[in-house]
Amino acid sequence: DQTNVMKVYPKTLGDRIGGGLKPGHHVVIFARPNMGKSMLAVTMGCGFAVGGWKVLVLGNEEPAGDYWLRFIQALSGRTKGEVLGNYHEAKTLALKRGLNNITIVTAAPGTKRQIDGLMEKYRPNVLIIDQLRNIDVGRVESRTNQLEAAAIYARNTAIRYHCAIISITQAGDSASGKAVLDMNDIDGSK
């Protein structure tokens, strides 16, 4: 059933997952550091925003200004140098293409209570969490349990707030040199 499907970009990824996401879906993006996880999330977020969906980006690794620059670049089609050279023009173009559908909040690290408050305030169709492994889920015995608790919280949040969630996290050392990863390659998973 394609009712309420939010198309996923890039198109090749959208095709692989059946065309898009529906409210209640949770997707985890993971790879080794500096492999383009955040840029993929920006591309996906821009696709949702262009489609008219409200996107909330919860960043806990980079300042909000870094996210804004990436979204303005993607939506305006300008390079970083071009955006910085004429910020007003690039932002105006990005706004025409959907930037007004994106809200970026820096929360370091971000607690469940804080995220719930942001979900109530902004009511997004899509929440992007960068990085899932940094979410403060309270006291847990290990990094593995912390990651599992954060993932369960994200899945439940997607259902509770009737939205799609894209979570970004790191792949562990086991992912080095692999072209295809599996869930056991997520850093801190077992």
Notes on the protein architecture:
- It is a single chain.
- The chain is an alpha/beta fold.
- The chain contains seven helices and seven strands, in the order βαββαβαααβαβαβ.
- The protein has helices spanning 11-16, 37-50, 64-76, 80-85, 87-96, 112-122, 143-160; strands spanning 6-7, 20-21, 26-31, 55-59, 102-106, 126-130, 164-170.
- A five-stranded parallel beta sheet has the order 3-7-6-4-5, with helices on both faces. Strands 1-2 form a two-stranded antiparallel sheet.
- The longest helix is centred in the last third of the chain and has 18 residues, at 143-160.
- The chain is globular.
- It starts with 5 loop residues before the first strand and ends in a 20-residue tail after the last strand.
Concise description?
This protein is of the alpha/beta class and 190 residues long. The chain is built from 7 helices and 7 strands.
The largest pleated sheet is described as: 5 strands, parallel
Count of individual beta strands: 7
Strand pairing plus helix content: what structural class?
Answer: alpha/beta
What is the global morphology? globular
- Beta percentage is 15-25%
Keywords:
alpha/beta, globular, 190 residues, 7 strands
List the topology elements.
Blueprint: E1 6-7, H1 11-16, E2 20-21, E3 26-31, H2 37-50, E4 55-59, H3 64-76, H4 80-85, H5 87-96, E5 102-106, H6 112-122, E6 126-130, H7 143-160, E7 164-170
Parallel strand pairs: 3-7, 4-5, 4-6, 6-7
Antiparallel strand pairs: 1-2
Helix pairs in contact: 2-3, 3-5
